[in-house]
Amino acid sequence: MLKLNSDESFNFELLRLLSHTTYGGADISECLIAAEEIIPGDFESWYAVWNRRAERILSQADSLSDPVSIRDAMFRASTYSRAADFFLHSNWEDPRLVSLWKRQAECFDKAIAHLDGTAYRKIVPAKGFDIPIIVFLAGRKGEDETKKRPTILMSNGFEGSMEEMYHMHGAAALERGYNVVVYDGPGQPTVRRDQGLGFIHNWEAVVSPILDYLETLPSVDMSKIGLIGYSMGGYLAARAAAFEHRIAAVFQIDGLYDFTQTPIFSNEHGLSRFGSGNDIEGTKAILNNPKVPAGLRWALGHGLWAFKVQTRAEFLEKARRFSLVGVVEKIQCKVFVGDGEDDMFFKGQPQLMASALGDKATLVTLTAEDGAGEHCHFGAARYTNHVMYKWFEEEVVKALENSAKS
Length: 406
Description:
By secondary structure, the protein is of the alpha/beta class.
């Protein structure tokens, strides 16, 4: 595939941002101009270029008058604000972590106010924390919102946001007549900032309260609940399904069985090459060493922030809990186990997951020939959503309807 940046991590993240164009979260030339301007491996350059993109769109906001233009512009400004934040997390005190996130949320809210259907934010209380969610109801505003519909819950993973999930899989689900609920849990961007909470491995503590809330909505068919987990969210979704049996189907995009057994933590090229030191200064030295590949500096810096720990040893200790060994047997629902043919992060994990699940798993390998071979199938949103939701329609929606008729 054509390279957008000579730095491997920057190239991947640029493809990810370019993927937002499919469902209205970015524009092609804006992304390509940014790619041309960014200095490879330079986190401040990455911030400056994407911040400038967002500010340029916002400088034109006063000239926008029709709802479609406002929606499109605000979605793009939101995406580029999130992009500007992406590589900054190694400095927890950086004020941009707060200001950029506030701006992306404000822009996103202005955008969803101009969607054809109803969309709103809500806080769902959980045990010891609150869960921010965004609800998108299928159909147009003013239509019958008591019609029960299949509903897809979706969360991101290690670093992504609930707002990103709208552009990756949410808009596609709405087009197919499904309600959508996106959310952030502990460790994910909004909860980490607003509540100061790092990741927890027992993700059912996040999903179950959301399902309790959905039971109060007349438009939700509780027998047809799908749960999407994106990247590391594949573990989170499967873990939740092991203990929460109101879920009819899980989508692992992609299959993740044991987090610390991925290339991210490998001894040769991953974080384990630096050892599992318990010294803060040694960890800071890695983060500030420009000779360390940008992807590893980011993975360590963001991982410490997201898990709310100070050292490599603490990070590894907490990350080890993100394993489905001894848990996967409790999953009762059907599981779509996604597999990117050229996935550089989770290679081999989908096969382990499918083997552990047995006949509950549908292992689906998406290939480079269809443009879908990358991690999370970035760049192939239309095709990926077609494959995912066709499976859900056949395995859950139609299967339940046929069962009710017989």
